Amino acid sequence: MSLWNLRRLCVLTLLLFLSIALLDAGGLDLPMARLFGDAQGFAWRGHHAFTVLTHEWPRYACGAVIAALVLGIFRPWGFLAHLAPAQRWQLVLSIACAMLAVVAFKRINATSCPWDLAEFGGVAPYVSHWLWGVRDLGPGHCFPAGHASAGFGFVAGWFVLRRAAPDVAGAWLALSLAAGLALGWAQQMRGAHFMSHTLWTAWTCWAVGLGWDAAVHWHARRKLVPDTKLNET
């Protein structure tokens, strides 16, 4: 039995959800934001070089990697040559859906960013992102962390690589997590997100990847089950 079969991955996903929920309930968001911001705002928000290095360039890099993976569906390169066409599609689609899921959650959530809060020079009072539909008088649409999904979104691809390309799966997962955490921390410093926003983005991308893999696994098992009606005589 594989160490990371679907059942164990589902249990791990639930444990990760509960762990992040407990951290979120601990109320660390505001104290962590105060490390970088005060009533005058966030000093790193207006730092041009920091913004370019941690926001603009990673966004372009993410787009370039996705474009390369899409090209690899039709003209396989590197490790993609060892994947079946269906696996290459799963890799790209799971990553894209993970990123789109984060965007979708942001659109329906009314939580504003730290730099919009009155405590940090904005106008909005602090309202927990769990109070869905409760507006804080700010612009909202800040939860979860969209920019961190430029790194965490690739976590969703690990679920197919763990079987199709195990020699690169570990490095892929580690780099994806490191990139997401680095981008999330940079946004924390700029006042664009709380750390809980980043952690929930990571979990969302992981859960979407697992969902895709479970759907593919279920479909494959259905194809292997003989049609009993055809066997009736």
Describe this structure in words.
The chain has 9 helices and 2 strands; from the N terminus they run ααββααααααα. It has helices spanning 6-25, 29-33, 48-74, 85-108, 149-152, 158-164, 166-190, 195-224, 228-231, and strands at residues 37-38, 41-42. The longest helix is centred in the C-terminal third of the chain and has 30 residues, at 195-224. Residues 227-233 have low confidence and may be disordered.
| Quaternary structure | single chain
User: Spatial order of the strands in the main sheet?
Assistant: 1-2
The major β-sheet equals: 2 strands, antiparallel
Number of DSSP helical runs: 9
Low-pLDDT residue spans? 227-233
Order of helices and strands: HHEEHHHHHHH
Which key phrases capture this entry?
233 residues; mainly alpha; two-stranded antiparallel ribbon
Topology overview:
Blueprint: H1 6-25, H2 29-33, E1 37-38, E2 41-42, H3 48-74, H4 85-108, H5 149-152, H6 158-164, H7 166-190, H8 195-224, H9 228-231
Antiparallel strand pairs: 1-2
Brief write-up:
This protein is mainly α and 233 residues long. It has helices at 6-25, 29-33, 48-74, 85-108, 149-152, 158-164, 166-190, 195-224, 228-231; strands at 37-38, 41-42. It has a two-stranded antiparallel sheet.
